[in-house]
Amino acid sequence: METRYTHSPADIQRYSTEELRKEFLVEKVFVDGEITLTYTHNDRMILGGVVPKDNSLEIKLDRELGVDYFLERRELGVINIGGLGYIEIDGKKEVMNKQDGFYIGKETKHVVFSSDQADNPAKFYISSVPAHKKYPNVKISIDQITPMETGESATLNERKIYQYIHPNICESCQLQMGYTILEPGSAWNTMPCHTHERRMEAYVYFDFASEDTKVFHIMGKPDETKHLVVANEQAVLSPSWSIHTGIGTTNYSFIWAMCGENITYTDMDMVAMDDLK
Questions:
Q1: pLDDT digits (tens, 9 = 90+) for 154-169
Q2: Which segments of the protein form a coiled coil according to its record (predicted)?
C-alpha cells in the first residue's frame, strides 16, 4: 500500500508536471493477480484495485492501520468493472457480475475476492474510509438504480450518474460511491465545475475506446487550474479545495468515491465559468 500525504493549494502553485502526477495521479490501479492500494491522508481514504486470477485475494491490513483486521474500524465500497467474479464476506459467497457493487460495513472480518475465469478476471475497484457505526452489507446491481440523466449533446456532457452507495440505496457512515457513464459524442464531465469543502473525492477513469484515448483531468483552485493527462484505468485524488472536471478525446466512464463530514450528494459549491482561470 502506497501512502499519499495532503497538500494545501499553495503547495502545488509551482509543481512541475511530474510532481503534480506523483502527488495526485495513481498510475497503476489494476494489476493482474494482485491487490494495489493507495492510502491518502485526505480524509484517510484507501482506494485501489483487486484483480484475482488463479487464486483468491484478501485485503489484510492490521499493523498498517493499527487494528486487528482491515474493516475493524472502516467501511468498504466495491464495484466490479471486469469479468465475472465473486466476493466471500465472512463465509457468505456472492456473485459479482460486471457493474455489480457492494457496500460492506465495519466489523466485517473477511472479504475474499475471486474470479470465475483467469483469462477474463474480475476487476474490483475498492474504496474504504473510517466508520463509526456498523451498517448492513448490501449488494447493489446497476439494474436496481435509476440513473440521474444530466447534460446535453449540445454541450458535450450528456451522461448517466448511477448512485451506488447513497442514502437512496443503502446506509453508510460517510462513504458515497457511484458510476458515471458518458454517452457517445459527449466528453465533458461536470462543467460548469464545483468544489465541496466538506469532503474529498477520488475518480478512476476506464472504458476507454482505445489506447490513444486520454482524459484531461482539470484540478486546482478555480482561479489557478492545473491538469493531469489520464490514461485508461488510472485514478486521481481530488482534495476538498480542488475542482474535479475533465474532457476526454472520446466518451468514457468513471467511478467516483467521496468521504468527509457531509454525506449529502448535492452539497456542492458551484463555480461560475467567469471565475475559472
A1: 999 999 999 999 998 9
A2: none
The 3-state DSSP class for residue 11 equals: helix
Burial class (CB in 10 A: 0-12, 13-18, 19+), 119: exposed
- Residue 196 CB partners (closer than 8 Å, separation 6+): 240, 258, 260, 262, 267, 268, 269
Lookup result for grid cell 497538500 = 7
Q: Which residue ranges make up the annotated binding site?
A: 194, 196, 201, 244
- pTM of the entire structure? 0.96
Q: Which three cell numbers stand for residue 176?
A: 458515497
DSSP reduced 3-state for 9:
helix
**SS3 of the chain: helix, strand, coil, percent, to 5:** 10, 40, 50
Taking alpha carbons only, the member of 88, 206, 96 closest to residue 141 is: 96
Region 183-195: mean pLDDT is 93
Q: Quick: pLDDT tens for 190-238.
A: 988 999 888 999 999 999 989 899 999 999 999 999 999 999 999 999 9
